[in-house]
Amino acid sequence: MKPIYLDYGATSPVRPEALEAMLPFFSQAYGNSGSIHDFGQQSREAIETARKQVAQAIGASTAREIIFTSSGTESNNLALIGAARKRKAFGNHIVTSSVEHPSVLEACRFLEREGFEVTYVPVDSNGLVKLDQLKQALTDRTILVSVMAANNEVGTLQPIREIGQLLKDSPILFHTDAVQYFGKVPFSVIELGVDLLSLGSHKVYGPKGAGALFIKKGVRIEPLLHGGGQERGMRASTLNTPAIVGFGAACQLISQEVADEQARLTALRDHCWRRIQSEIGDVDLNGHPSDRLPNNLNLSFHGVEGQAILLELNRKQIYVSSGSACSAGKHAASHVLLAMGKSLDTAFQSLRITFGKDTTLELIDRFVDELKEVMHYLRSLSPQEH
């Protein structure tokens, strides 16, 4: 039987159109985009086309608002550290949430070591940021707010537009990590009201090794990498032309498909959840029941550790996750679930199931059938009653 891949929250396959766009820049049009001769300018033109494709996909006013990076993690680090350092004359306070991606939380901890103060706003039991507490956290020394658009583990959608409205007339910069959000929910950066927004290529069927940071016109941040002045001095390094070209092609395609795909994935997700609830039982849904990513189910199965379920499914060539792929290899309870007030048992019992463009109703039904067998076996080994 064909393997079942349900870990799109970790990564996605490169779609054929993106791969086709990339191929010439590995062996034929391999010029350095910084070279002024025609061979280099061929790469330069391809990169600028990709910049326009990314800008259009997120509703940016101009392609100059897009800076290419190597990943969503680098984009988050550049946004937070770059903004904090640039604005330290105006204050030293940063506000973020307790459920951010590790690349945001670790960047904040790094900034704390540099003398910045960080407030980690709590979330409710659904993983939603408490807006009143976020508002109360703001001071006259606050220079940056960073709240993710969608949680990478439990899929909860955060009130980004409301936060954007709250900060609209203030000098505080607003950053959102939209790596999981982009391609799943239609949006524009203008509508969200953000100053900085992070993207990653491999979550939208582009290649690994490419990401982008939207920097609103007029916003200034400090670069992290210094050297040849690429990306208008914001990110020195020879540009990864093939990956950027593939990222641009993937962005163009996914922006055309996002509304239809949102509806399709929502229907598949809900079908999967209904079957698991009724046919397996003793399971909790983690995250907001409706304000969540259309392709995300984060579930805690009573009495069985998520990693045990994952390993049994893996033997059947069914691939899911027990949390964030960025924390793979760390047998630790999810900081997201603990911040939501879940018990240690619930956190260890969690499984993240994420769907994508190749997921079909037939695959989901096969998955649930196999999961039923796995759960019957694992629960038969447990002394607990279910």
Q: Considering DSSP H and I runs of 4 or more, what fraction of the residues is helical?
A: 40-55%
- Mass-distribution shape: globular
Major sheet: order of its strands? Answer: 2-8-7-6-5-3-4
Low-pLDDT parts are none
Structural class: alpha/beta
Largest sheet: 7 strands, mixed
Enzyme class: transferase
EC number: 2.8.1.7
Protein name: cysteine desulfurase
Keywords: Iron, Iron-sulfur, Metal-binding, Pyridoxal phosphate, Transferase
Topology:
Elements: E1 4-5, H1 16-22, H2 24-27, H3 38-57, E2 66-69, H4 72-86, E3 93-97, H5 102-113, E4 117-121, H6 131-137, E5 142-146, H7 160-167, E6 173-177, H8 189-192, E7 196-200, E8 211-215, H9 241-279, E9 283-286, E10 296-301, H10 306-315, E11 318-319, H11 335-339, H12 344-348, E12 350-354, H13 361-381
Helix pairs in contact: 1-9, 3-9, 4-5, 9-13, 10-13
Give structural notes.
By secondary structure, the protein is α/β, with parallel strands linked by helices. 41% of the residues lie in helices and 14% in strands. The chain contains 13 helices and twelve strands. The strands form three sheets. A seven-stranded mixed beta sheet has the order 2-8-7-6-5-3-4, sandwiched between helices. Strands 9-10-12 form a three-stranded antiparallel beta sheet. α5 (102-113) links the parallel β3 (93-97) and β4 (117-121).
